[in-house]
């Protein structure tokens, strides 16, 4: 079984343009993200778009030694399908590049659970019921199932959000497995990069607390100990699937 991580990235984000190319601690947020994923030991593929605005993402990823697949900007499902075919994956971990502090051990736990289930119709995630902070999200699923979704999915939400065809069980036989955090409940915290206030928090965490060296439990403990940090982006609402 060849399992690979596919992370989606683009420069034309609406709330905070080119957000993954912004920097903290002397590195872009994309660089932090990819470095942490490398620690899983799995191959990591950057799925970006053919839009010329994404050339800096291609250049940075290539410079860091990560393969890049370029596909549709809006039909992200087809972009993932193309990356799967090009790299001949049988299993996929989907993450998003706006998670610069994603914990590699959290991702590894999800992959291990997926392997243990040993079924092509299983979808494993840690955010079906949220206990982790935003920014630690992953999904693990069969490459064959996503390729099937790419062939038959017609709803715009399925084309844009990649995995809704799977976790909404449109095929009728998917088995959904949630992996909760055994460290408690960090679901109120945002460690993801979507707005300027998210950037203020992440920049502070990295530049003042060396957050790039911390795991999920340590990050949550830090936020618990410093409520003024959590307050920086506590008001930010996550965009809904149809937005």
From TrEMBL:
It comes from Kribbella turkmenica. GO terms for cellular component: cytosol. PANTHER family: 3-DEOXY-MANNO-OCTULOSONATE CYTIDYLYLTRANSFERASE, SPORE COAT POLYSACCHARIDE BIOSYNTHESIS PROTEIN SPSF. This is Acylneuraminate cytidylyltransferase. CDD domains: GT2_SpsF. It comes from the Bacteria. Keywords: Nucleotidyltransferase, Transferase. InterPro entries: Cytidylyl_trans (IPR003329), Nucleotide-diphossugar_trans (IPR029044). The keyword Aminoacyl-tRNA synthetase does not apply. The keyword Ribonucleoprotein does not apply. SUPFAM superfamilies: Nucleotide-diphospho-sugar transferases (SSF53448). One of its GO terms (molecular function) is nucleotidyltransferase activity.
